[in-house]
Amino acid sequence: MSGFRLRGHAAPLVPFTWQGRAMLGAQGDTLAAALLANGVRTVGRSFKHHRPRGIMAAGEEEAGALVTLGEGARTTPNLKPSVVELEAGLVARAQNCWPSLRFDLGAVNDRLSPLFAAGFYYKTFMGPFADTRIWMACERLIRRAAGMGAASPLPDPDLYDRVHGHCDVLVAGSGPAGLAAAREAADAGLDVVVAEADFALGGDRLSDRDPQELAAALAELDALPNVRLMARTMVFGLYDHGVAGLVERLPAGAPWRERLHVMHARKVVAATGALQRGFVFGDNDRPGVMSAAAARTYVRRFGVAPAREVVVAGAEDSAYAASIALAQAGLDVIHLDAREAAPPALAERARAAGVDLRPGWVPVRTQGHALGGELRGLSVGRHLGDGRARAETRLPAEILAVSGGWSPSIHLTTQARQKPAWSAELGCFLPGEGEVLSCGAAAGVWSREGAETSGRAAGRLAAIALKATRRRPLKDADPGGDEAPPAALWEVRPAGRAFHGAGKAYVDPLHDVTADDVRLARQEGFEAPEHMKRYTTLGMAPDQGKAGGVIGLAVLAVARGEGTGSLAPTTFRPPYAPVSMGIFAGPDRGPGWAPVRRTPFHAQAEAAGAVFVDAGLWKRAWFFPRPGEDLTAASMREAAMVRATVGVADVSTLGKVEVQGRDAAAFLDRIFANPMANLPVGRARYGLLLREDGIVLDDGTVWRLAGDRFLVTCTTAHAATTAEHLARWRFRWPELDATVDETTEAWCGLALAGPRSRAVLEALTGADVSDAALPHLGVREIEATGAPARVARLSFSGERAYEVMVRPEAAAALWQAALAAAGAEGGGPYGLEALDILRVEKGHVTGREIDGRVTPGDLGMPGMASRAKDYVGRALMEREGLLDPARPVLIGLRPVEPGAKVAGGALLHPLGAETGRGIGHVSSVADSPALGMRIALGFAAGGPARWDGKLLMAKDPISGRDVKMRAGPPCFLDPWGERLHG
Amino acid sequence: MAETAILSPCPPLRQASLPAIGAPALRRLAEALGAPLPPPGRAAAGEGGLLWRAAPRSWRWLGEGAAPFHAWPEAATVELGPGLSRIALRGPLAREVAARAVALDLREAAFPPGAVATTVHRGATVTLLRGAEGWDLLVPRSLGEDFAARLAEIAGRLEG
């Protein structure tokens, strides 16, 4: 007989579907409880060996059954049914099996398992087949055969929330210790959050026979205004500065599926309980083998008997609690205690409950049904010490409930870098001391009373640490609390014969890692726990050491001839248990994954027919197509228009930084590579900024608005970096009276470029902007369309040009007036693409050339780096490697065949040597209307000095297109700058 | 919808900085304000505006009223308001909405009315003020529309 619902468990029924079969569970069930109540024993197939597996636990330590929930886009694989809350309409199915759960072709792997020992996959990398087609074909098969479930390839239709939270004390876990800690901290006036991963609060108290006491305690706590009780909320990770990651599962119908709480806690209390571990024996993974604590939980909390015939095999006291609970529920219980003498008081209670107690006995190997493999009995024998036993007799059993001891759940403290310490007395690792306080079973305190004492002590310590109380620390409970010490039992090995004939003995059933695998790893040189873990996959991925971490270490230590506890566990990583990827994306997904920046001219440009392009976060006007025009046609027309008459472009995105103060000029002189101190008032100058390592950070202009007031403009791409650079250096030179304020968005601007640009500026300002009043590189603060404006005569296109900056509220008027005036001159708006064409024709650089690798010399501007003053980056710019004459230097490239279309990013090679990485690359291309061909800028080793007039092959490894180019200086048009003066 | 995220232009926001701010300078500023200067992280109301310390050597004045920086003729001043937008978060769930925008401690004791802080939202520098009516987020103007839409959407979801 398999599992069934016990009489007296009254709860509303909940319909759900398992493997396409309609079933009924009870409200408050986990999926595992509901499956057991419906008599389901085999729930899935294992990761590697495809062995049948059933429910093995009642919590996150589940290592047997992983299932897939949902359908279509809402399919979620690899869930542990022991923590899945049963909801009406839930659809679940087994995974890792084909064609069916009962008959799985992959089960042949179990027969072939000697081939799949530890390190099997790595070994395929070696030998005669490595890197061959045969290996590639096998590798595909291996990958297909292994794995855990399959995620939906469809976009996740659910939404995820992300919220920042703060509290004084975060208590992880709501068991006896957690609730006591919360109460103590709350009584000190602290703001307390209790996060419980389960959908019900109470932890171990949920298995109490009288639920009223817990309900009263929770109600009392919940009534406190400074306590937040959060069920369905797992603390999955602890990070720096008291930041904890909490994931909250929201009920069906909520606007979000899950919520990520980035919780900033001043103090964290880990009341995370302990995980019951088994021990290793032959075929210890059959459906029907589970932890003793799980068996008790299913009976007590869920009212589900996992089966009628139960054998409990324990090596410590708590197994008796399971036996007694199961016997009191009317089940037939045989209790094997690995210890020679049973603890007298517990033994008496067990016998009184009807338990058949057999001290000194252990399971040796299980037996299962021929077809499904489910447990039907086990061979047992007397424990001869050190895990040795000889099978003497056979016991029938449908459930084998095992307890080898408890491992405090120290994941959070190890994430906080608190090194765990081995307790030989308790046979477990105890949490290390540090900022995170542990209490209850998480601190190795096993008894209920002890846990509550421990919780109160932790709550008091938190209150003292946060100076919320002047009271003294409370006496903490000592770890332990059992009637008799546990037996150090990790593995039962048949005495007198080779272990290999005794069935597979799993250390980590989740990853199909056996004790032999651990020994093999050690034998092959992977002796350190970190190495053994990676070689065998023990305790990796979703498990994070819950199922077999401690047992694996013990087996390894024994294999090394060392004492148990001599090896420290590997660092547990967040998340404690798997969490949805969606919570990390939160609301940042789909079209809104990144914010959108719009300039003050956006609406006007849109009305003028602009097509926008993403430039970082900015939406920039790319081109203004006329009917029938595409990007190329429109941008070439716009570029030609600028050269012929006048164009208007939105340049608001340029970075702007105001530098003020008595020493502002001195500050800028130290910051820029070229001199700035001698810049006259009312003039602007091109400037080159270097990083501390001598590499060009950015370029821009400096406008001297007054003796002690400057405006620095920089490129759109580097606006934030440049502003930060200036601010940082400002604070490094406190002796200078200078302030640095970014004002990028406090001003917006238009560029007026072209031979008729002055006429447009006159129309906008009504001021004298003649060459005498506003010469090239002149700056004036005047009015434009009635609003205060900053105007500078600067050119990026090589034409006479002006930049007009106004406050954003004046943007619309400026745009309308500028376009009207430009239209009167035969001009119009131009976009980013035309702007790029114009600057490539002139050989001006942008972020595609200033790419974080180049020096002023590489850009063909060695003279910009002053030799007469010191400045940021000068010292390291003079490193030998940066002065190497063979460095790639900016060049211009024209196609030999005018119609050829070179691609940006193409590699440059000397003709006849067209292999490898070449001598440089193409950085920018432009379809130049002025030259009637696609021209390019790029970098070539030695630059124009070496390659002027010579042919290079531009090879685009992506398109496979090769274009023969003639190299020359980077400036293609008006090399003497005559057009600047219109 | 009771819960709102209302986008509007930022009122004038003027910043004044001095190379060094000593007690005499602070006294002059307090006299110009007509009230004691607020401690860090708090704003003080003056005639037609709010004053707070933005950095060790910088103070800001938000509002249409005349800034008290006439007390510091030697200060470097800059007008930042035109580059910002204001998103007003109102209603009983305003704090919940704000908690999705910034990582600050918004609990009553930590961020009472009158509190102000500069922080980061979606990679951008923002300033959060708490007034009697609710919470105001000052964000870069270019991002105002996007941020307000996101916060309004969150508010809508929280309201259900």
TrEMBL record, chain A:
One GO CC term, this protein: cytosol
UniProt domain GCVT N-terminal: residue ranges: 601-864
Gene Ontology terms, MF aspect: oxidoreductase activity
SoxA A3 domain mapped to chain residues: 503-586
Swiss-Prot/TrEMBL keywords: Oxidoreductase
Segments forming domain FAD/NAD(P)-binding: 168-415
UniProt cross-references to InterPro entries, sorted A to Z: 2Fe-2S-bd_N, FAD/NAD-bd_sf, FAD/NAD-binding_dom, GcvT/YgfZ/DmdA, GcvT/YgfZ_C, GCVT_N, SoxA_A3, TrmE/GcvT-like
PANTHER family: AMINOMETHYLTRANSFERASE, AMINOMETHYLTRANSFERASE, MITOCHONDRIAL
Family statement: Belongs to the GcvT family.
Name of the protein this chain belongs to: Sarcosine oxidase subunit alpha
Species whose genome carries this gene: Albimonas pacifica
UniProtKB/TrEMBL annotation, chain B:
SUPFAM superfamilies assigned: Folate-binding domain
Name of the protein described by the UniProt record: Sarcosine oxidase, gamma subunit family, heterotetrameric form
